[in-house]
């Protein structure tokens, strides 16, 4: 029996319609209890949220009843009215699905083998002077503390359990924007807390029941209220794990669906009820085609790594999911796009999915904080292995108790990853590898082994370039440089996360000449030392369009800004086409461009 928030609307018809005075909605954990245990209603939250009345516009008739304005039938005293014990948050045990109890996602948070001195709390000084730029109409002001935004007691408790003391810059801006119901395109550095930035408003919104629609009675079909899409299986799993922590004991149920794992198990999870579905596009298309998921109740859509999701590889699938199925259109649903990079062409595409959105840029990936020390070394192809070995030996010598620090080595091809892993192991360096030709089990095992420090060297293709939050990665080595500066930015962002410092070393030779200009510009902007030979390479580069970012402190800027100096167009003509197409060709892990409807890629 499905027991998600959405299901409850279907089950009892006791969720109030627009302005109506129906009987109160009973959250799953409180059902089957004497009515006296259900706390009484107060609607003060609604008054403080301006954006959600838009859900009331264009309300369809029949099965789909959009609730006009904020729900006020929620059994929640004084939500947002200053510290009332919210109805959702009065719960003691989270969702209680019959015999099923919510597993405590914090229980296995014990940190492995690493130096205990590592600060688990973010170094906010590192973010002090980060430039922030917003554009769009009526941008809600940022907050300085979580207390300023009433996310609800249960969510606040989870924030404390996560040891988040105050919001990161991207959270300070995006949470009020999202809570006010606005669409958002947000560009903020790697490792700066974007996951929480989109999860908190979604969870809080679902807890408050904003804009909820009654689903039709369809057995075995899941009706999530929020959809979070990400490009890789591992990233979807990671978002799912994070979201489960944030949603613990809130009554909001989070389910993940991704390729390479048995679909039956995921179907069973969906049947138990889902409020937030985290998914990779291929598996989601599969579930939609099997009619096991409907998107008609979606109120929140978040695309993580949104520029990647909308580039040539994924765009057809994303369009299918967002525009050709039953998802409510922009203006009815709320859409949030997040990434550390946002090429202008992709922004233009993305605007199809948004309504009257706010653009936010928080600094430049990894560079404006100088958290990541970037080094570029001239290394011929034939010398790369011995050079890597020198680096690894030096690391052991300088490391704590002669231990190898976690080192992530990026290579261009899957074959290259296999052979480098083998060579490292043969030479006494415990290494493992992750790439798109490995089974999902092997991929997950490789990540686990790396994270735990069992094999402290992970050789990876771009499958591991985006989003993965692996604590304690001390060094990222670009054994093979990517062809796109944005990929470089995401790769090096696997270190220097959440205010910690990191080191990134790139091996450069004539084959990477097309990257010279972008790389030296990026390094300059990040106050890194640019070797003279790289500057010479860069000045020799005959064309200016490809990979050119222009001089700005932001990862990208709002393409709508007409006044924006055209001379500083970061993504001049020719960038997107050339380099994005390169994913498939170079086999860097993404099977971009190869999708067709109904085909599940190895990625999903
Ligand atoms: N307010 C906060 N206080 C302390 N730590 C935080 C806070 N917000 C997020 N973090 C931690 O910062 C780390 C990075 O967060 P996250 O993975 O969301 O970054 P990201 O911006 O999505 O990075 P990427 O661009 O690489 O995907 C995580 O370990 C997360 O738990």
Descriptive notes:
The protein folds into two domains: 17-208 and 215-367 and 592-604, Rossmann fold (3-Layer(aba) Sandwich); 369-540, 3-Layer(aba) Sandwich (Rossmann fold). Helices cover 30% and strands 12% of the residues. The protein is α/β, with parallel strands linked by helices and 604 residues long. Bound molecules: adenosine-5'-triphosphate (ATP). The site of adenosine-5'-triphosphate has 19 residues, from helix 5. Its EC number is 3.6.4.13. Residues 175-360 form the Helicase ATP-binding domain.
Tertiary shape: globular
Mean pLDDT: 76
CATH superfamily of the largest domain: P-loop containing nucleotide triphosphate hydrolases
Low-confidence stretches: 5-93, 111-120, 562-604
Query: What proportion of the residues is helical, as a percent range?
Result: 25-40%
Count every beta strand, where a strand is a DSSP E run of 2 or more residues.
16
Bound molecules: adenosine-5'-triphosphate
- Compute the separation of the termini in Å: 28 Å
The side-by-side strand order for the widest beta sheet comes to 3-10-4-9-8-5-7-6
Based on CA atoms alone, the radius of gyration comes out at 24 Å
- So, CATH architecture of the largest domain? 3-Layer(aba) Sandwich
CATH class of the largest domain: Alpha Beta
Question: How much strand?
Answer: 5-15%
């Amino acid at each position: 029996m499905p027991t998600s928030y959405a299901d409850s609307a279907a089950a009892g018809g006791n969720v109030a319609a627009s302005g109506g005075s129906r009987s109160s909605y009973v959250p799953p954990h409180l059902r089957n209890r004497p009515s006296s245990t259900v706390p009484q209603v107060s609607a003060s939250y609604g008054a403080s949220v301006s954006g959600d009345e838009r859900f009331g516009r264009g309300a369809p008739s029949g099965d789909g009843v959009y609730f006009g304005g904020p729900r006020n039938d929620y059994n929640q005293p004084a939500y947002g009215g200053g510290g009332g014990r919210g109805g959702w948050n009065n719960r003691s045990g989270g969702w209680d699905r019959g015999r099923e109890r919510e597993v405590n996602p914090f229980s296995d948070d014990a940190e492995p083998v690493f130096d205990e001195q590592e600060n688990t709390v973010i170094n906010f000084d590192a973010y002090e002077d980060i430039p922030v730029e917003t554009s769009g109409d009526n941008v809600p002001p940022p907050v300085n503390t979580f207390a300023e935004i009433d996310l609800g007691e249960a969510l606040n408790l989870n924030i404390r359990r996560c040891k988040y003391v105050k919001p990161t810059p991207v959270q300070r801006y995006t949470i009020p924007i999202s809570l006010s119901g606005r669409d958002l395109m947000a560009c903020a550095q790697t490792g700066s807390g974007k996951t929480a930035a989109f999860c908190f408003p979604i969870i809080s919104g679902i807890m408050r029941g904003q804009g909820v629609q009654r689903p039709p009675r369809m057995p075995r079909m899941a009706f999530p209220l929020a959809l979070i899409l990400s490009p890789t299986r591992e990233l979807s799993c990671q978002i799912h794990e994070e979201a489960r922590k944030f949603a613990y004991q809130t009554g909001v149920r989070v389910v993940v669906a991704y390729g390479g794992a048995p679909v039956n198990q995921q179907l069973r999870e969906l049947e138990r009820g889902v409020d937030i579905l985290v998914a990779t596009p291929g598996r989601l298309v599969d579930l939609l085609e099997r009619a096991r998921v409907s998107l008609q109740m979606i109120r929140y859509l978040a695309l993580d790594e949104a520029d990647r999701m909308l580039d040539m590889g994924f765009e057809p699938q994303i369009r299918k999911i967002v525009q050709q199925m039953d998802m409510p259109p922009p203006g009815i649903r709320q859409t949030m796009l997040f990434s550390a990079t946002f090429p202008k062409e992709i922004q233009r595409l993305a605007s199809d999915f948004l309504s009257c959105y706010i653009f936010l840029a928080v600094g430049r990936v990894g560079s404006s904080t100088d958290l990541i020390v970037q080094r570029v070394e001239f290394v011929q192809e034939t010398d790369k292995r011995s050079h890597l070995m020198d680096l690894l030996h030096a690391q052991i010598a300088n490391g704590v108790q002669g231990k190898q620090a976690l080192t992530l080595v990026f290579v261009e091809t899957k074959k290259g990853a296999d052979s480098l892993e083998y060579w490292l192991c043969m030479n006494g360096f415990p290494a493992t590898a992750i790439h798109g030709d490995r089974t999902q089990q092997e991929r997950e095992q490789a990540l686990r082994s790396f994270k735990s420090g069992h094999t402290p060297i992970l050789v990876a293709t771009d499958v591991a370039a985006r989003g993965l939050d692996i604590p304690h990665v001390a060094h990222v080595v670009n054994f093979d440089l990517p062809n796109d500066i944005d990929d470089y930015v995401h790769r090096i962002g696997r270190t220097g996360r959440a205010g910690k410092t990191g080191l990134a070393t790139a091996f450069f030779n004539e084959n990477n000449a097309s990257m010279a200009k972008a790389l030296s510009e990026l390094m300059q902007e990040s106050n890194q030392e640019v070797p003279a030979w790289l500057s010479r390479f860069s000045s020799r580069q005959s064309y200016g369009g490809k990979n050119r970012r222009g001089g700005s402190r932001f990862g990208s800027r709002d393409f709508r800004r007409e006044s924006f100096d055209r001379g500083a167009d970061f993504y001049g003509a020719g960038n997107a086409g050339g380099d994005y197409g390169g994913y498939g060709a170079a086999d860097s892990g993404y099977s971009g461009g190869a999708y067709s409807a109904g085909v599940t890629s190895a990625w999903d």
